[in-house]
Amino acid sequence: MSQIKQRLTRWVHQPADQRCKSYIFFTTVGSFIARAVQFGKLPYFSDKTNFLNQVFVKQCWAWTLLLITIITLLRVILDKLPLRKVYIVTLRLMFGTLFWYSMTTIIDGLKDNMGKCTEGEGEYNTRLLCVTEGGSWKYVMDISGHMFMMVFCNLFITKTLDEINQQQDKDPLQLPHVILHAVCRLFVILFDIMMVFTILYWHSPPEKILGTLTGVLGYFLLFKQLSSFIPTNWV
Predict the structure, then answer these.
(1) Which of 38, 73, 141, 152 is most buried, taking the most CB atoms under 10 A from its CB?
(2) d(CA 111, CA 107)
(3) Quick check: 226 and 94 in contact, CB under 8 A?
(4) What is the pLDDT at residue 171?
(5) Which distant-in-sequence residues (6+ apart) come within 8 Å of 83 by Cβ?
């Protein structure tokens, strides 16, 4: 039991760079296992309309924005965070929102336009026209937006906590920080759990893998490439 607890603790506190590899590995292996085994669906988690999916997963970037913004404000108020650090966090949130919006728009566009209308009268080239006319839209490629968003948000949250924890030995975290960090970890756990059910029940393996890779790409662009455009005296 203690070994299980230790492994879970290590997973929850796994650094963002390692999480990238873990997400790619488990999504790839899990997707093909799920395709081969065909796990029986659980009534709650296999339902797209469940509360966790509607309130947390579909709004996960909004939750991420809220959490990171509160963390930053606390650091400004309690830790006297320099304005240059606020600038860096603000840039990441701005470009993160741009990346999230761009990718979700592209994914939805591919879903709406790359497919075939069936069971309808006549031929329709878009999902909207097909469904409006009573048809059924068969997707050619439906990249998993859920995998993209949850991977992207978890890596964003985890990397932010990693950077703060690097200062923990010099400046121990105050109680409000400790509480908020615990809330962030709970969100990470929730998104990880919902990823597992997405891998088990939804999309084809290539669609889930592409969604995961897109989330990892966003993380590298924000936390690896964006820093090259920030003056060194601001870091």
Answers:
(1) 152
(2) 6
(3) no
(4) 61
(5) none
**Contacts (Cβ under 8 Å, ≥6 apart) of 92:** 156, 222, 223, 226
Backbone angles phi, psi at 231, to 5 degrees: -55, 140
Of 5-9, 36-40, 120-124, 187-191, where does the model show the most confidence? 187-191
Type and span of the H or E element at 102: helix 83-113
Q: Which residues contact residue 17 at a Cβ distance below 8 angstroms, ignoring those fewer than 6 apart?
A: none
- The DSSP bridge partners found for residue 118 are 136
Residue 1, classed as helix, strand or coil, is coil
**Interacting residues of 89 by C-beta distance below 8 A, sequence separation 6+:** 68, 72, 160
- DSSP tally for the chain: helices H, then strands E: 9, 2
* Reported pTM: 0.85
Nearest Cα residue to 202 out of 83, 59, 34? 34
Q: What are phi and psi of 45, to 5 degrees?
A: -75, -20
Contact 191, 95 (CB under 8 A): no
Q: Which two tokens stand for residue 199?
A: 């891998």
Residue 180: pLDDT above 80? Answer: yes
